[in-house]
Design a protein that fits this description.
The chain is mainly alpha-helical and about 400 residues long. It is built from 17 helices and no strands. It is about 75% helix and about 0% strand. Its main location: membrane.
Length: about 400
């Protein structure tokens, strides 16, 4: 009996070292290709099946929480597991290990392109074309899972139409809020089964402080920006707001980021789409695209600023949400609202597939042919994204040559 207690104690969350968490997450950051859904599969294999840091049910609950919150879901799951394993610093170590490889790769890519004449580059145009295939694949996969019935398909289509006709960040926030309200009021409420308690090393006071800080920054930064002309403050505000308001994570960040950095002229359309294409070739979270954008805007200093700003909301939301998730996840109304929000996310992504991705990348029949080939390689041949990126870069150079 005593032996069993010792084994349970050793396997329990929150009983590990920061260095251990950093080591495991760094290896995942080097090898986790394929986007957020694939990342969750890698996490399950490593943390649940191999290391047994948490059980299947607890892992599923963490995934549900991170899908409910705005921000990059896979990064938030990794942060949550790091916190449960080694406290708050364990969460930082988990994020750093998973994020650093792709962030460094994109910083190097942006540095290499500094001063490059973008408009005449065939291989760079190929990177914009691969974004069409990647986003189309994401729409296809998410639609099957998140919009499998007539009501949710309707929400997705209406959302896409509204986003195309009124492409504003505020419009996306209003659509997500309205979708959640519709789900809460009208979607069927399935019974929620009894689940074991999730134990996390965060007090309710710390969680409440995290929520206060999150909303204080979200509401206060735009006001401070009005009375302070600091460029760094403007950049931090824009990326913090994007990290705070993107439901679905991953590719859904594209339209919000595009509005924040291209509209004020910080980054050109071509630079933006090319960087997004390059982001498909690296492992780890797609939100490290912010490191590329920061480098283009202001070198290494800009990369650090934008990366911290876009991921900071995830930390605050996870720290604020974990201690209360046991209460939230037991209510069927929250699940119904989440189902409707996820359908709206599909519509937002569908609109992003057209603008800015399609309209910036597909100019000729040859461009469409290359995008179609890339889509087939990703969807049906199951080729790794980094290899498809190389294929499209070579294809873009070939199209220019002929």
């Amino acid at each position: 009996m005593e032996t069993t207690k010792i084994l349970d104690y050793e396997k329990s969350p929150g009983r590990g070292s920061i260095l251990e968490v950093l080591k495991v997450s760094f290896r995942l950051g080097l090898t986790s290709f394929g986007g957020p859904i694939a990342h969750l599969g890698y996490f399950r294999e490593e943390y649940v099946l191999r290391r047994k840091w948490l059980d299947e049910k607890t892992y599923a609950d963490l995934v549900a929480l991170c899908q409910f919150l705005p921000g990059p879901a896979s990064s938030q799951v990794g942060i949550s597991i790091g916190i449960m394993r080694a406290g708050l610093l364990g969460g930082v170590a988990s994020w750093l290990g998973f994020t650093l490889p792709s962030a460094l790769a994109l910083i190097l890519f942006a540095t290499f392109l500094e001063g490059y004449h973008f408009t005449n580059s065939g291989w760079l145009h190929g990177l914009t074309i691969v974004a069409v295939a990647v986003v189309a694949q994401a729409v296809w996969g998410m639609a099957k899972t998140l919009a499998p019935d007539r009501p949710r398909v309707t929400i997705a289509i209406l959302t896409a139409m509204i986003m195309l006709l009124f492409p504003k960040a505020l419009g996306q926030i209003m659509i997500i809020s309205l979708a959640g309200l519709i789900g809460w009021l009208f979607f069927p409420k399935a019974p929620v089964p009894e689940t074991p308690k999730i134990s996390v090393p965060i007090s309710h006071k710390t969680a409440i402080f995290s929520w206060v800080l999150f909303f204080g920054l979200l509401l206060g930064l735009p006001l401070l920006r009005q009375v302070n002309n600091s460029p760094n403050l403007a950049v931090f505000d824009s990326f913090f707001r994007v990290g705070s308001l993107v439901f679905g994570g991953g590719h859904v960040v594209l339209p919000l980021l595009q509005a924040e950095v291209v509209t004020p002229g910080w980054v050109t359309d071509t630079q933006f789409i090319a960087g997004y294409g390059a982001a498909q070739a690296v492992p780890g979270p797609l939100f490290t695209f912010a490191a590329y954008l920061g480098t283009v805007m202001n070198g290494l200093t800009g990369a650090m600023l934008t990366t911290i700003a876009i991921f900071l909301p995830s930390f605050l939301l996870i720290i604020g949400g974990l201690p209360f998730w046991d209460f939230i996840r037991r209510h069927s109304s929250f699940q119904a609202a989440l189902n409707s929000i996820n359908a709206a996310v599909v519509g937002i992504l569908l609109a992003a597939l057209y603008n800015p991705v399609w309209v910036k990348a597909i100019k000729t029949p040859a461009d469409f042919s290359l995008a179609l080939a890339a889509f087939g390689l990703l969807m049906f041949w199951k080729m790794p994204p980094w290899l498809v990126v190389i294929f499209c870069a070579a294809g873009g150079a070939f199209i220019q040559w002929i």
